[in-house]
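Backbone-to-sequence.
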């Protein structure tokens, strides 16, 4: 606060030193040393300040010695007002304006920035100890005139911060009192010196005139702190550096790999080390690191009592190969102690390697930190699973280096698992039956918390309680490498399940007595085994032969295929077909026709079954279906003889109402018709009196008719090609001629439908009908390979081109001498 004495004109201010400068002994020492007089004799007429604002003909000055803002007029400036700028240092005298009754600055003179004195600096050196270190990024001391550079930095120095987080602190004593003085990197005499906490330094005391803030300047190192060895534990490791958890205080300290000599690559997280603390570039680092024997460093006190609790939360977001020693991993709540008794634990506190989930029952002990007395859970071990209802079973499918795959019992898939997920670290091998928890991680499902089960626990199939009876319809002897289960013997059993005829497969391993001889037609009893992965997969097991037929069983069926020397017979139940050779026929082969009803026996030869003693029956001998009068329309959704289906022989037609009905070769009216996927058909539905199943009968394909012209025909081989707008070079065979026609010529206009060639695997023309004969008098029929060759040569000649200009040669000459003309033939 300033004190004034008035006079008739301008009164010169006579002011005392600011009150706050006289209260502190260090301030008083610095101020009196500066003036060299007692408090009561301190007087000054001129002051220093900085231009704070400029207007049209006046401005304002901030005093450097006290908190005051003074008005001045340009007429009081001893110089050119145009040269003034905000931030310029000036010298002035304060008076009280007689009219405005306010303090005003007069006799304003410009001075050099170096002549400004913001602080009072004592000459007496004081000693102290470094309590905390400044950061290298901190600004220079406010005592330096060029701390920030520029005129506006002078205004900034009028308002120094009382505390800067980037600054360090020195503890010193003066006249029995303890003081904490802040300092920055700019306050060091030798700025290249790296101070350390505890170093003894000498300094000068600086007091800011306006605010009274005391700080240390001109700091110099006097004596280094004695180096002490500190113990710790490796907390985390990176490629070329790491962090050590200190045993003397709570916190981690940085170290570089060069401080470990050649042993950095041998260090691991949780290794115990000893090191020396140093300050480098304003940061505390660990140096001269040496490894200690395990058990040397004890940071925690482990309780002897065993606690019981449940996992409250788990945070497994840290990468296990780069995780920190003290990264938070989870929380466990003690049983019966309320939610307040919760303890955190780290990854290193786990006594089990498998995955933990919230709600798991665990056992643990308490670890008390010697440095701050905080408790945490350690030796956390899994006691019981929380997801017992969600656990699945399976068998170890394969084992690799550190991981494996489990074949699921209830799903048609395999799951990856890691050896660390095996509960109690049991030794696991291929074929072990296990229980596990499926867990979705990184958009992939894997098996965790794997527990080995006693042999015979895992069941892949559900065995029926009821015994069924059926007839063996197919059987193969063992030894074939292409057969199922590595060439074991096997066959098929026909049985009625849920009012539907079904065929179940079985092998000799499914027999109750493997020495039993099985033949086609044998009656057997068995249990049905249904796969837990897919309920549609069923097989016969525990098969027992009921009796052996004395006579050879006779079968009945329909002839569905006739070739040059062999054919196929569809069984009466429409569930398969059997091959026969014309030599096995009792009658002449010419008496057989498509749809002929026959009776035969089945024999085994080379692991395959054949029809023998094929005898034609009269028409209508076999059981006829009961047909419904309605003619339906539908689409073929499954072809005949689809080996990838559970019903490989029969085909399926879908009606317009969405109903699916089976059909066989005997269901098709025309024996030469090969029904394909998505073919449109008309049919009737009938019920087979033997199997009581609904089937499709009288199936006729609905075909679109096209017209085209015979473009080429091979007489000796009886095939050719048709040209039409929709198709180019469409193949046909003479067998497809209809209407009694036996001869076809090049140029004939024909009407046909589109079929599919089974052998050629391509579209072809079927059901040809000649619409118009060729009227050309020239030869209509081309014969032999020479005619076909001439036709293709003529087509090739039309595509030939003649070179009429050669490119230029390398010397610029023309590359040809022929005349540029093309004759009519070319």
């Amino acid at each position: 606060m300033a004190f004034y004495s008035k006079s008739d004109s301008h009164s010169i201010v006579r002011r005392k030193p600011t009150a706050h400068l006289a209260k502190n002994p260090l301030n008083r020492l610095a101020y009196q040393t500066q003036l060299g007089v007692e408090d009561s004799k301190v007087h000054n007429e001129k002051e220093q300040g900085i231009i704070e604002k400029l207007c049209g003909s006046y401005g304002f000055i901030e005093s450097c010695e006290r908190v005051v803002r003074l008005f001045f007029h340009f007429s009081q400036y001893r110089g050119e007002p145009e040269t003034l700028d905000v931030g310029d240092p000036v010298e002035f005298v304060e008076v009280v304006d007689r009219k405005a009754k306010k303090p005003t600055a007069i006799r304003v003179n410009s001075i050099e920035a170096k002549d400004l004195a913001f602080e009072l600096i004592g000459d007496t050196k004081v000693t102290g100890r470094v309590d905390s270190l400044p950061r290298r990024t901190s600004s220079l001391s406010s005592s330096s005139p060029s701390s920030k550079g520029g005129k506006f930095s002078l205004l900034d120095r009028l308002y120094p911060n009382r505390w800067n987080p980037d600054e360090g602190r020195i503890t010193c004593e003066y006249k029995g009192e303890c003081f904490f003085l802040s300092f920055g990197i700019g306050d060091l005499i030798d700025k290249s010196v790296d101070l350390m906490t505890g170093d003894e330094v000498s300094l000068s005391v600086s007091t800011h005139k306006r605010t009274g803030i005391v700080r240390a300047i001109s700091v110099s190192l006097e004596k280094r702190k004695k180096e002490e060895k500190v113990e710790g534990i490796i907390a985390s490791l990176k490629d070329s550096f790491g962090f050590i958890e200190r045993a003397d205080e709570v916190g981690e300290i940085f170290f570089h790999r060069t401080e470990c000599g050649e042993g950095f690559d041998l260090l691991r997280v949780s290794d115990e080390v000893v090191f020396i603390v140093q300050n480098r570039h304003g940061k505390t680092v660990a140096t001269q690191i040496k490894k200690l024997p395990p058990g040397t460093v004890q940071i925690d006190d482990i309780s002897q009592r065993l606690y019981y609790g449940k996992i409250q939360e788990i945070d497994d977001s840290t990468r296990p190969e780069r995780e920190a020693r003290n990264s938070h991993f989870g929380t466990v709540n003690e049983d019966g102690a309320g939610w307040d008794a919760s303890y955190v634990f780290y990854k290193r506190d786990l006594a089990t390697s498998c995955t933990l989930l919230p709600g798991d029952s665990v056992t643990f002990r308490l670890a008390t930190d010697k440095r701050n007395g905080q408790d945490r859970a350690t030796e956390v071990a899994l006691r019981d699973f929380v997801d017992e209802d969600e656990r699945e079973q399976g068998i170890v499918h394969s084992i690799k280096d550190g991981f494996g795959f489990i074949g699921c019992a209830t799903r048609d898939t395999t799951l990856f698992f890691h050896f660390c997920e095996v509960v109690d670290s049991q030794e696991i091998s291929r074929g072990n039956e296990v229980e596990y928890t499926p867990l979705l991680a990184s958009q992939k499902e894997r098996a965790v918390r794997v527990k080995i089960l006693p042999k015979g626990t895992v069941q892949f199939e559900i065995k029926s309680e009821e015994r069924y009876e059926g007839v063996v319809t197919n059987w193969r002897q063992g030894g074939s490498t292409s057969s199922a289960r590595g060439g074991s013997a096997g066959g098929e059993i026909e049985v009625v399940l849920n009012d539907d005829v079904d065929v179940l497969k079985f092998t000799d391993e499914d027999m109750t007595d493997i020495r039993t001889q099985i033949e086609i037609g044998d009656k057997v009893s068995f249990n049905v085994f249904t796969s837990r992965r897919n309920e549609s997969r069923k097989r016969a097991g525990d098969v027992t032969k009921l009796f052996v037929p004395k006579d050879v069983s006779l079968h009945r069926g329909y002839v569905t295929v006739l070739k040059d020397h062999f054919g196929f017979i569809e069984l009466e139940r429409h569930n398969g077909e059997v091959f026969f050779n014309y030599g096995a026929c009792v009658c002449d082969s010419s008496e057989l026709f498509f749809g002929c009803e026959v009776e035969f026996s089945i024999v085994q030869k080379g692991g395959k079954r054949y029809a023998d003693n094929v005898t034609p029956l009269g028409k209508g001998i076999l059981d006829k279906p009961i047909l419904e009068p309605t003619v339906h329309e539908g689409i073929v959704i499954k072809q005949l003889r689809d080996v990838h289906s559970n019903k490989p022989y029969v085909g399926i037609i879908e009606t317009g109402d969405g109903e699916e009905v089976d059909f066989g070769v005997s269901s098709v009216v025309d024996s030469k018709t090969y029904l394909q996927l998505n073919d449109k058909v008309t049919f009737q539905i009938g019920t087979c009196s033997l199997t009581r199943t609904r089937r499709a009968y009288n199936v006729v394909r609905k075909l679109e008719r096209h017209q085209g012209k015979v473009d080429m025909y091979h007489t000796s081989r009886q095939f050719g090609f048709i040209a039409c707008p929709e198709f180019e070079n469409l193949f046909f065979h003479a067998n497809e001629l209809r209407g009694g026609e036996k001869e076809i010529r090049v140029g004939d206009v024909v009407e046909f439908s589109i079929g599919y060639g089974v052998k050629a695997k391509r579209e072809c023309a079927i059901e040809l009908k000649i619409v118009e004969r060729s009227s050309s008098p020239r030869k209509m029929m081309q014969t032999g390979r020479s005619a076909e060759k001439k036709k293709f040569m003529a087509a090739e000649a039309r595509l030939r081109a003649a070179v009429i200009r050669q490119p230029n040669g390398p010397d610029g000459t023309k590359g040809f001498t022929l005349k540029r003309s093309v004759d009519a033939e070319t």
